[in-house]
Amino acid sequence: MPLDEFVPIGFDPPTFLATDRFHLEPLGPQHNQADHAAWMSSIEHIRSTPGFLDGNWPPRSGMTLEQNLADLRRHADDFTQGAGFTFTVLDPADNDVIGCVYLYPSASEKWDATVKSWVRADRSALDVPLANAVARWIITDWPWERVDRCGR
């Protein structure tokens, strides 16, 4: 795989991961309200989650729904272009947004990809099970060998 290519040409990225506690699907504009509500309710919890400790996201002051929508559109475009893959984490019982998973190129040549995930504060018990399920999924369904799990 060329250094400037995140996934091999022709790679068909998985679009679903399901467990009995959550399922993942590509994040998009259709999730705007629920995604916005999920992370806005849990800013400090997310900022204390491995991968988000640098304090850059989420913004302490939040964002408007319109700003969040623009962010979701950017993530959806990245997915379409194979530049990065962002998944919403949904409760299988009611499809409510309970978190997010990001699979993006690493800023370091040491890694092929960086994986980050967060869950709402009221679902914090799912933090480690989600990270572990995604780690297994990457091994079985994704093309990377060197994955930075941000200390997980």
UniProtKB/TrEMBL annotation:
InterPro entries named in the record: Acyl_CoA_acyltransferase (IPR016181)
Keyword Transferase: yes
Keywords: Transferase
Domain of life of the organism encoding this protein: Bacteria
Keyword Transferase in record: yes
Gene3D superfamilies, per the entry: 3.40.630.30
Single annotated GO MF: transferase activity
Name under which the protein is recorded: N-acetyltransferase
